[in-house]
Amino acid sequence: MCGIIGILGKGPVAGRILDALKRLEYRGYDSAGIATITEGAIDRRRASGKLVNLKTLLGSEPLAGDIGIGHTRWATHGPPIEKNAHPHATERVAVVHNGIIENFAELRQELVGFGRVFQSDTDTEVIAHLLTHLLDQGRDAESAMAEMMSRLDGAFAFCALVKDRPDLLLAARQGSAVAIGLGDGESFIGSDAVGLAPLTRRVVYLEEGDWAAVRRDGVTIHARDGQVVDRPVTLTEVSDAEVGKGNYRHFMEKEIHEQPEVIGDTLGYYYNPIRRRIVLPPLPFRIAGVPRITIIAAGTSFYAGMLAKYWLERIGRLSVEVDIASEFRYRQPEMSPGGVSLFISQSGETLDTLEALRYARSQGQIIVSLVNVPDSSMAREADLCLRTYAGPEIGVASTKAFTTQLTVLACLTLHLAREHGKLSTDEMARYAEQLIRLPALAAETLELADDMRAIAEEIAPCRDVLYLGRGASYPIAMEGALKLKEISYIHAEGYAAGEMKHGPIALITDGVPVIVIAPSDELFHKTAANLQEVLARGGRAIVLTDTEGAAKLKGTKARVFTVPKAEPLVAPILFTIPIQLMAYSVAVARGNDVDQPRNLAKSVTVE
Ligand code: F6R
Description:
This protein is an alpha/beta fold.
């Protein structure tokens, strides 16, 4: 969601802020702006739409100043028009903000009562006016900030500049991440380390409730209780080089093609080739004493969790529940004492998942997180953090993060199954051998790109598409439908193939594409029967299967595409690749903005 950048520089900052905002584009946004202090006054430029509009504006109306803040806005309160774009400013203060100020209506009314005049429809503007009001009462910037923090409710992050203090940026975190970058006589503020990567690698992350006074020579951080606290300086792993598109047209395409490599990188952390077994870091629990594992996530990460449930139940004989974070957190369920809760998130910042994690913590659960962003909130708040090593995922539609999540979840399954006494040494070695073949098989599967491009031309004009799968292919069908709808804007649904006759079959008429995910596993013949039902009703069946399955389907009217034959543990990961390629090519064929689809944000930090 919204991207925040602040720079206290040694020279003009507007161009550098624009570059940094460009790196945050992947988070999703619909307007942008920059404010600086120049000649003792706040000056700003804002534009709706993409950053190119802001760049054009800066070309004709440049912005001077060596301190500034910038923002990419994903609209919550008020449409994405210029007056609602950040920074919001008064005569003394400018502010950029991510998240929601829940008590903004009360604050706005109070501030209007003091004669303050609001210009926008946003909740953000109350921050600028409240800070100004407190400064007008004679407080200095730091004490005004401290007072303001006690007045704001909600989950947010923001960065502010104060006209009379060209040596200072203020930043706060209450629910959404803030990274402070330390440079050489310069300082930076960003919503994440990706934005700061070319500026510095030395980063301090604010913790919940912290606010910071950032100067060129360092930072003073105050905890929620007002005490000055030390937060560790970390060296971020995000490198500048990692975030280009290379020879690819879109980040999504690049990220799909990176999968063999990043799956291999990820396996490298969990596979011990000498002992031929999966080795995880020491677990903060003994699986024998765990009554239940609860998996919680959102979107694509939730589908990874769905698949993990199949594996953990089947291979580990463990009791597993899987839940959508936004539902789980408000249901306030009873949680078995001694239970383990696993939170899956690419960003590690999705607000619903993070709040669900905190709820589970309050219920005495042991917290395990599986994240891609190393220093994210979920990484830091877990008893054990497992990592995917996918590198920065910039395309809004998740691809390599999903398959690396599945890779780690497969490793976790094997490790827990072994600890649970359900896997012999030989079985462990056999499964591990299957996993280490995965990068090579993924590379082979990518050869379907041309076939998927061809089929995409046929799907691109369609209105509806169905995805069917059984067992471990069911979450992949769900993921396929999500991938297609989010970037192609075609209505798509994923169903358990066995549910077809309970309703969805009514949707099948002449020519409706039905993507059937059918590896030749023990459920193949059942899925094949569902395929016949689709064909009998005029559905345009497109089957993804393996060589064995293709042989069995010879002579059917379905279009059959062949994924390399793999064992059941790794097959779902491979079958994900053609559905990603297909969704990507459909979106390209429709001329859509693949990497930044409309209305979507990469990291959903509001609920
Ligand atoms: C879909 C997609 C989203 C995310 C979801 C959770 O392609 O990217 O559905 O999976 O917003 O995000 P994380 O994994 O960062 O918690």
